[in-house]
Write a structure and sequence with these properties.
The protein has 18 helices and 21 strands. By secondary structure, it is α+β, with helices and mostly antiparallel strands. One of its GO terms (cellular component) is outer membrane-bounded periplasmic space.
Length: 530
């Protein structure tokens, strides 16, 4: 072998490595003398990982070390700069995109068998004839029942490339033989808009649960329905909405603000400012808007509330919002993982930042602030909200607003302690309402065949016997005994809303639940001038 051929792979390897090194250094803002400078901090980290990889006495998964290192670095930044591991990327991406490819069923593992709770409206399974209560026994000949089958495995078998087909074998109560269905996989929306309906003859209601890529289209469709139904006022419910894409929030606000009204502006570390203004395309610029927020309304939800409040357009109803005024950008790390890094701050039209402090007591205290608000009495009494005169701003019409930690509502509504107690939250968290209602429906689904959705919402009553059955069910699922004496009516409300959800699908839960919602009642009073 010649000298050149022998060392050619080595030379090529060195050249490629040098190219990667130089490429990693390239930054069009760098001066030429910095191009070949070393970064001792990066070198130190790389050397440590290499030492562990090659010389440490035991085999170590250095990928996990890198994950820990990345998280450790981000922990020294702000609470909203986060690492997304490779294994979580698909789920996170689906959630933010607003859809996924599948067969379109919500299912429950009941006695080791996959049982359909409900089909997604307009989805592939509904079109194929699958119904709530159906047991899916096999998919393409593979068994889906038994103790050894995990929910994750089931999902993988039911999901697949778009327009591919899956043959399902189904057991349906009342049918003498197994049934066969061929379902073509399609795009299944992950709904951002939970409910759209009229609260009164003039007041429409829209509940938005997050700001994904598909959210604006869903919202616009709902808004058009309400306008066609005669709505001249809108209650936009953003309670519990953690946020999402800033651009989607801007599009939503644009429906309410007139041309050239400032929606927000952002500022990065270099002091660069980007401003966002409303256009003339809004369809509800003349209507009245009420925005419902609470302590879990964050980020894009606060952008909407702040923009409308600062432009004297909306009436903000509820409790002080979360207080997140930072903007993240998702950046690929090259191995399937990513980091969401805070790249700028956003400011409402009057110039206020609503980001609450996070450097003083660490990330844990930052996320535990709900307990602090509860202990201080702020969730019950607006006078307990701490404000700073140095962060006082004034809207064009002279309304005083404050920065420094969330959007403070124009009309305060205290937390409803009857619904926010530990027992009910525990029961809801473990899906006892959903599972119990499914079992009840499974006994005789035809009992509700003659009841229309509106008749159920307006007139159906949950009797005491069902509450007792539910109490017995919960007590079979938990070690401690639970009684519902103190919140009997609240349990009835949850049961009726869950029944409506499983029987009638989209928006039925909210329409029932809102009948006893004190914040909804307050909005209706404001709308009627009371």
């Amino acid at each position: 072998m010649s000298y050149q051929k022998k060392y050619l792979p080595l030379v090529l390897g060195v050249a490629i490595a040098a190219g990667i090194f130089i490429g990693g250094k390239l930054n069009f803002s760098d001066a030429p003398d910095r191009l070949f400078s070393t970064n001792s901090k990066k070198d130190k980290l790389n050397r440590l990982i290499d030492y562990i990889d090659y010389d440490y006495v035991e085999d170590v998964n250095t990928d996990s070390i890198v994950d820990v290192t990345v998280n450790g670095i981000l922990d020294n930044l702000d609470p909203h700069s986060v690492y997304i591991p490779k294994e979580d990327m698909e789920r996170v991406a689906e959630n933010m995109k607003g859809d996924f490819v599948g067969i379109g069923v919500s299912f429950y593992t009941y006695r080791d068998t996959i049982t359909v709770i409900k089909t997604i409206e307009g989805g592939p399974s509904e079109k194929a004839g699958i119904k709530g209560g159906d047991r899916i026994l096999m998919a393409n000949g593979d068994s889906l029942y038994g103790k050894g089958v995990l929910d994750g495995d089931i999902v993988k078998r039911l999901k697949g490339p778009i327009n591919t087909k899956v043959d399902l074998t189904v057991l349906r109560k009342g049918e003498p033989e197994l049934m066969n269905f061929t379902v073509k996989r399609g795009v299944i929306p992950i709904k951002s808009v939970d409910a759209v309906y009229m609260l009164t003859e003039k007041l429409g209601y829209i509940k938005v649960n997050r700001f994904a890529e598909s959210t604006y289209k869903e919202f616009k469709k709902g808004l058009d329905i309400l306008i066609d139904s005669g709505a001249t006022e809108i209650a936009l419910d953003l309670r519990g909405n953690p946020g999402g894409f800033l651009g989607i929030a801007e599009q939503m606000v644009d429906e309410f603000l007139g041309k050239n009204k400032l929606i927000l502006f952002t500022k990065n570390k270099r002091g660069d400012i980007e401003e966002s203004y409303a256009t003339r395309k809004g369809d509800f610029e003349e209507g009245k808007v009420y925005v419902l927020i609470d302590e879990n309304s964050a980020s894009a939800s606060e952008i909407v509330a702040g923009a409308l409040q600062d432009n004297d357009k909306g009436t903000i109803v509820g409790r002080r919002s979360y207080g997140k005024g930072l903007v993240q950008r998702e950046m690929d790390l090259g191995d399937g993982s990513a980091v969401r890094l805070t790249v700028s701050r956003y400011y409402t039209p009057t110039g206020r930042s609503i980001q609450r402090p996070y450097k003083k007591n660490g990330h844990k205290d930052y996320y535990d602030e709900y307990s602090d608000r509860l202990d201080s009495g702020e969730l019950l009494d607006p006078s307990k909200i701490e404000v700073a005169d140095s962060l006082k701003f004034t809207t064009p019409k002279g309304k005083v607003v404050y920065g420094g930690g969330g959007i403070i509502p124009d009309v305060f509504v205290p937390i409803d302690n009857s619904l926010h107690n530990e027992t009910l939250q525990y029961i809801e968290q473990y899906q006892f309402f959903d599972n119990f209602v499914f079992r009840q429906l499974d006994l005789d689904r035809h009992a509700y065949d003659g009841i229309t959705r509106q008749d159920f919402i307006d007139n159906f009553k949950v009797d005491d016997e069902l509450v007792v059955k539910f109490q017995d069910y919960v007590n079979t699922q938990t070690r401690s005994k639970v009684t519902f004496v103190a919140y009997h009516d609240e349990v009835k409300q949850y049961l009726k809303a869950t029944l409506a959800d499983q029987l009638y699908n989209s928006g039925a839960f909210e329409e029932v639940f809102n009948q006893s919602d004190i914040m909804i009642d307050e909005v209706i009073k404001l709308s009627e001038g009371q």
